[in-house]
Amino acid sequence: xxxxxxxxxxxxxxxADADLLSEFLEEADETQWSLVHVEKLxxxxxxxxxxxxxxxxxxxxxxxxxxxxxVVQTHETAPDLPIVVLTGxxxxxxxxxxxxxxxxxxxxxxxxxxxxxxxxxxxxxERSNTLKQLRQSEEQLxxxxxxxxxxxxxxxxxxxxxxxxLQSEIxxxxxxxxxxxxxxxxxxxxxxxxxxxxxxxxxxxRTPLATILSSTxxxxxxxxxxxxxxxxxxxxxxxxxxxxxxxxxxxVLIISKAEAGKLDFNPVPLExxxxxxxxxxxxxxxASTQHNISFLCQTSSIKACLDEKxxxxxxxxxxxxxxxYSPHGGNVQLELECKQDVTIFRIRxxxxxxxLKDQDQLFEAFHRSSxxxxxxxxxxxxxxxKKCVDIHNGQIAVESEVGTGTTFIIxxxxxCQVTEQLAESNxxxxx
Length: 431
Prior knowledge:
- This protein has helices spanning about 15-25, 40-50, 70-75, 90-100, 115-165, 170-220, 230-260, 270-285, 310-325, 380-390, 420-425; strands at about 5-10, 35-40, 55-60, 60, 65, 85, 105-110, 270, 290-295, 305, 330-340, 340-350, 395-400, 405-415.
- It is of the alpha/beta class.
- The radius of gyration is 28 Å and the shape is globular.
């Protein structure tokens, strides 16, 4: 399959330099290029408003604008486009300032060859895409925070309204007082949830953000000296960190929806044996080669009516935990069994185990066992598992011994019958 054409806007007033850059791009025949050349900043800004490009090659010395102002105006016009600055031998300090103003990279004229130019364009586009993903994750987290604040405000307004009704008969007063206590409890739960989310997210964001910043700075300063393997290793670190941030935001969204009684629930007929085989294969691909994940089922077909998204969520959480808390060489096993009118899932590991004193609070949001040590985590995984099982009208149990391992047992009806309370709480949710 042909690679997509990369559209480049070249802003360069020196025809010889422009021709040389064009020749360099033609030499890189493994990539398709589309080059548009203009000589003035005014022409560049107008072209950007009327056309789509993937990257900008920008000379800092133009007839109608000089220095950092070229970068500032270009970045204001196309804030999402990566910019690679072209500079003379005496402009290195200015070029570094341009990177701080929003450019992705800079190249020194006279020292450019085809490989260096193609590599700089590729890295600029990739770094720009990574920063976009990071901004999107931060915006999603901000929206979640605003939603939580809105919920707390709604609960507070509800309390004020109910307080004005406490002048009625004693029986009515008692009823309203009970509702008030429940509302206060709910408000406190939402407030605590918000505080815990902010605390955990702030802590868990630091490491991946530091990794992204560190790898980005190293790539900016030393990528031209590194081989492809070392550069790819840093890009992989950035990719993994962005994935971790995205997963963290997803976990927070799920637990907040569940606490508000708005978790989507859409059971459909599923072939569970095939589903479990595929899930185990997917997790084995991403897990360390030091862990072995196996699937065991005595029958070739089990059909049940479950929500596929929530089923994948709670099985993935349990299997991922089993991998995380197991030593290298440990075995993780998923067992599936059909008994009478229920489906039974068992997830076994040979990990660190769960102390008895921690098991009563095991499925509470933000609670973590006392023996996890330095193993990172948010304390949301098992809380999400419990919410997903509850909405299926199922049950979850745990058997664990410290230093030996843990088994989680999930029992779900073959045909899920949602309880009246769950059905009512989810009737407001649009699936």
